[in-house]
Amino acid sequence: MKKKIALVDDHVMLRNGLAALLEDCGYEILFQASNGKELIEKLNEKALPQLVLMDINMPRMDGFETALWLKKNHPQVCVLALSMLDDEASIIRMLRAGAGGYILKDSDPDELQKAIEAVLQKGFYHSELVSGKLIRAINNLDEHDAFAETLSVKLSEKETEFLRWACTDLSYKEIAEKMGISPRTVDNYRDTLQEKLACKGRIGLAMWAIKNGIVTV
């Protein structure tokens, strides 16, 4: 049975091209939509798509809002973000909203298919953009995985506060101002937590905080 996909993007030519590509790969395009509002209008409760392939920048209802709506109303529907945005803030926000993967629009067709299959089968995709190590750390809680050991790590109040700020789009300098500490101290928190939690980079810290309930959407 063909896997059912819904495409959400306000660029019609790109969307049609994606539809043709995915149909050639053996997927069924259940429907197309130009934004989140149109997606919601076209959803059929009795025949939901297995995966929504979605842009972020869209009119009326963008990818962030749409992914969050799907997470709350249809958590069984997988979401894969396909965007031109490659900044940390967009990636973190989209993953917080419930996307299982995030790839760029200039990715090769082979990577797109690989991402779709990974999200459908495992719930997440190990991309180069969002390090596979980080995604594995927040999703694959196998008892033998090194990340499992971090679940019992005790954090200080300041470390917890820093993790909450790390999940925002503030710069490290702005985080220092919010916390009333020096930028050097913020750097120390960042480096210490990356080592303590076995995470790499700000995305890794933010996703660990989300996975472990330090922040909620």
Automatic annotation (TrEMBL):
Residues 4-120 form the Response regulatory domain. InterPro entries: CheY-like_superfamily (IPR011006), NreC/VraR/RcsB-like_REC (IPR058245), Sig_transdc_resp-reg_C-effctor (IPR016032), Sig_transdc_resp-reg_receiver (IPR001789), Tscrpt_reg_LuxR_C (IPR000792), WalR-like (IPR039420). GO terms for molecular function: DNA binding. It comes from the Bacteria. The modification 4-aspartylphosphate is found at residue 55. GO terms for biological process: phosphorelay signal transduction system; regulation of DNA-templated transcription. Residues 148-213 form the HTH luxR-type domain. Gene3D superfamilies: 3.40.50.2300. SMART domains: HTH_LUXR, REC. Keywords: DNA-binding, Phosphoprotein, Transcription, Transcription regulation. This is Response regulator transcription factor. It comes from Flavisolibacter ginsenosidimutans.
